[in-house]
């Protein structure tokens, strides 16, 4: 019995000493240190979370970059009244079809490009003659980028379509009311066979994304700088 009593007293004294030491540590150690230590213990055994780096924006919003020796291009057709047509070339030139536009045609000298760009957005007003003149007068070594916004077929005359066909278009004669169409061609030199040059999407009441308009389409790619 005396031995058991001594054991009990020892246990009580040890418990009291442990409680006192714990209280003393809490008083001396800063609260934020204790909180951080507890959080660290809770994190032990958890799988690390891997965070992918934010992807770098590429020229003309490509998913993957063109090589340093290439130009990047991206041609996006219009979709309804709120989705504007856009032509981008190597981030140095961008053409938007603003709301209410009929046709935008212009040459643009890009600092890194030795030739000229001919870009047009075809809409429903009669500018077929202007388009024909621009194509005929485009100098050798020009890139020609074309896209539709709204309807590009009704007012486009056959002589203009013939010129576009001679540039390599396979779809210009298939254009229907409000077809979405994008096309890139070269005058005086040949584009690589493996790049995307043309795409078309016809209006279909059962499939249209924007009521009377089909979904917009785009073509994009990389053009070697040494073609001219």
UniProtKB/TrEMBL annotation:
<dbReference type="InterPro" id="IPR039220">
    <property type="entry name" value="FAM3"/>
</dbReference>
<keyword id="KW-0732">Signal</keyword>
<keyword id="KW-1133">Transmembrane helix</keyword>
<dbReference type="InterPro" id="IPR039477">
    <property type="entry name" value="ILEI/PANDER_dom"/>
</dbReference>
<keyword id="KW-0430">Lectin</keyword>
<keyword id="KW-1015">Disulfide bond</keyword>
<keyword id="KW-0964">Secreted</keyword>
<feature type="domain" description="ILEI/PANDER">
    <location>
        <begin position="124"/>
        <end position="188"/>
    </location>
</feature>
<dbReference type="GO" id="GO:0030246">
    <property type="term" value="F:carbohydrate binding"/>
</dbReference>
<keyword id="KW-0472">Membrane</keyword>
<comment type="similarity">
    <text>Belongs to the FAM3 family.</text>
</comment>
<feature type="transmembrane region" description="Helical">
    <location>
        <begin position="6"/>
        <end position="29"/>
    </location>
</feature>
<dbReference type="Pfam" id="PF15711">
    <property type="entry name" value="ILEI"/>
</dbReference>
<dbReference type="GO" id="GO:0005576">
    <property type="term" value="C:extracellular region"/>
</dbReference>
<keyword id="KW-0812">Transmembrane</keyword>
<protein>
    <submittedName>
        <fullName>FAM3B protein</fullName>
    </submittedName>
</protein>
